[in-house]
Amino acid sequence: MQFTINSDLCSKHNVILEVTFGYQTKARRLELGLPKAQVIDAMVIAAGERDFGLPSEYLVERRIKARFPYHRFSNENKKGKTCVKTPAVREVFGFKFWDKVSFIDKSGEKVTGYITGLRERGSFEISDLDGHVLTDKDYKKLTFMVEKQGNSWTEGRSIIDAVLRNFKPSPLPEQLIKRTGSLPYA
To answer: Which of 3, 49, 78, 101 has the highest Cβ tally under 10 A?
Structure first.
């Protein structure tokens, strides 16, 4: 399958494609002292042997999300038993799935997030665009910001927030040699 895709791309666009393996990308990333992230790996692969710097301003991400949770309960039929599927809730107290909302957290700061869990009683699960759960809040404590239109969100944010959020520096090759006696990719 991969060979077919590569050959089609080569013939249509007159380009030469090279296959890159994970150990090569990891070696190059460690060489440059960069953290592990999909965005960084894509930049390392695209740059090839050339040096590059991280973008200083913003990273624009586009996420495609489901319009709403299609299954309300897990309805596994076991041993021929049938069960009635109840429809998923689409809107509760004027809030819909993936609406952008803001709220005040425990430290008193204003935080924005997306509704990722609707509950009929009005308590919503709020997450960031990556899916990390921020909190559960009552609908009375939420401020509506933007209604989701279509099935994708585009958000611009600082590269530091997006990539280096939970960054723990990876050891440099010299430190790996001291610790293990050889490089893992040599």
So the answer is: 101
User: How much is the pTM?
Assistant: 0.49
**Reduced to 3 states, what is the DSSP secondary structure of residue 154?**
strand
Do both 101 and 146 map to the same domain?
yes
- Say whether both 118 and 170 belong to one domain: no
- The boundaries of the domain holding residue 36 are 2-62+159-180
DSSP 77-98: --TT---PPPPPP-EETTEETT
pLDDT tens-digit profile of 60-106?
Answer: 556 666 666 655 555 555 666 666 666 666 778 888 888 888 888 88
Nearest-10 crossing angle of helices 38-47, 22-32: 90
Is the CB of residue 66 less than 8 Å from the CB of residue 72? no
